[in-house]
Design a protein that fits this description.
binds pyridoxal-5'-phosphate; alpha/beta; 12 strands; 391 residues
């Protein structure tokens, strides 16, 4: 099997599993209890919090563990919106939310739900043809009514990277709360919250070789959100419930490994990604690379994301062909596989009609090998040729 769907999820790093094992077996204490066994679990959770904070230049008390990226997005958007709405600036009407058409459903559906519940206005920013939201677009969209902006750091379908620092500067100058969904960026590219000006940032462990079902919200010091899950008061009272100790420990280990290996991994992954993109673009006719070009640098495209659209190809048929050859890939976001028709992201970046149904997303990881990339190019070439021959 060749696994090239690392934007959907990643393989658990053996080092992460090793770190988690004691907390799935003998170290089973509840961190809230008082005896020694509990103290060990409590210390392990705190150590993981420190490692997660270190990776992005945050303070440990700015990290709130959640059940994943989706929950972190919900906590940020619902909580920050309540904070914005309680600002006296908005006494005369509900503040408006700005987001983009290319966001993950965890953001889009949450903004929609807040709008339905509160009756507030929303603005959906358009991306450029590469999937990037320009800071100028943000500048033009904000008005005195804007209370919250949520824009992703890296796109999960076309690998486009937004200039979060520049957008953060705009929101900070205008006193607008700003959340970024960094699920695809966290652990994959350097992030420094000190220079980024975002008030909140979401991340998820299973995207960086950690376990599924654990994520985090970075929440800038001084911002006081209402409790998202009420109960026993864990996670500074914001997210009650007995901690997923083993998951959190695994997430902490994944952060430690990312901090240690990120730059070297990025270089290696990028070389393989470039080989894959060049191979597919040169050996197959009528194909476009969706998202920013690979020559545009890591500031514009994640090093691991290769996404294509083939003319006159049905993406789902291509996936079946690839699956039969042992290759795991996807047409777009795994989280929106139920979406009818072309994905909202490909529509947002205006992929031409005769290409839009033929999308293929391949995500590399630190475990991807050159032999796998060679095999993938051969398999995609053969599958596209076969599908076109029977079209
Ligand atoms: N945001 C983005 C950009 C994602 O890619 C994903 C997962 O694919 C999520 C949020 C949701 O994260 P989780 O699967 O941890 O809920």
């Amino acid at each position: 099997m060749i696994y090239l769907d690392n934007a959907a999820t990643t393989a658990l790093d053996p080092e992460v599993l090793e770190a988690m094992m004691p907390y799935l077996t003998e170290e089973y204490g509840n961190p809230s209890a008082t005896y020694g066994l509990a103290a060990k679990a409590r210390t392990a959770v705190q150590r993981a919090r420190e490692k997660a904070a270190e990776l992005i230049g945050a303070e440990p008390d700015e990290i709130i563990f959640t059940s994943g990226g989706t929950e972190a997005d919900n906590m940020a958007i619902r909580g920050l919106y309540k904070v914005a709405a309680s600002d006296r600036r908005f006494d005369s009407g509900m503040p408006e939310i700005i987001t983009s058409a290319a966001e993950h459903p965890a953001v889009l559906e949450t903004v929609k739900s807040v709008a339905e519940y509160t009756g507030c206005g929303t603005k959906l920013l358009k991306t450029d043809k590469e999937g990037i939201i320009s800071p100028d677009e943000v500048k033009m969209a904000v008005t005195g009514k804007t209370g919250l902006i949520s824009l992703m750091m890296a796109n999960n379908e076309v690998a486009a990277v937004n200039d979060i620092a520049a957008i953060g500067k705009i929101t900070r100058e205008r006193g607008i709360l700003f959340h970024t969904d960094a699920v695809q960026a966290f652990g994959h590219m350097p992030i420094d919250v000190a220079t980024m000006e975002a008030d909140a940032l979401s991340a998820s462990a299973h995207k960086l070789h950690g376990p599924k079902g654990v994520g985090l919200l970075y929440l800038r010091r001084g911002i006081r959100l209402p409790a998202y899950v009420t109960g026993g008061g864990q996670e500074r009272g914001l997210r009650s419930g007995t901690e997923n100790v083993a998951g959190i420990v695994g997430f902490g280990k994944a952060c430690e490994i990312a901090k240690r290996d990120m730059l070297a991994d990025m270089r290696r992954i990028k070389e393989l990604r470039d080989k894959l993109v060049k191979g597919i673009m040169s050996e197959i006719d009528d194909v476009i690379l969706t998202g920013p070009g690979i020559d545009m640098g890591d500031q514009r495209r994640t090093v691991s994301g290769a996404s294509f659209a083939f003319k006159n190809i049905e993406g789902s048929s291509l996936l079946i062909q690839l699956d039969m050859k042992g290759i795991c890939a996807s047409t777009g976001s795994a989280c929106s596989a139920s979406e009818a028709g072309p994905s909202h992201v490909l529509r947002a970046i205006e992929v031409p009609d005769d290409y839009i149904n033929g999308s293929l997303r391949m995500g590399l990881s630190k475990f991807t090998t050159e032999e796998e990339i060679d095999a993938a190019i051969t398999a995609v070439k053969a599958s596209v040729a076969f599908l076109r021959s029977i079209w």
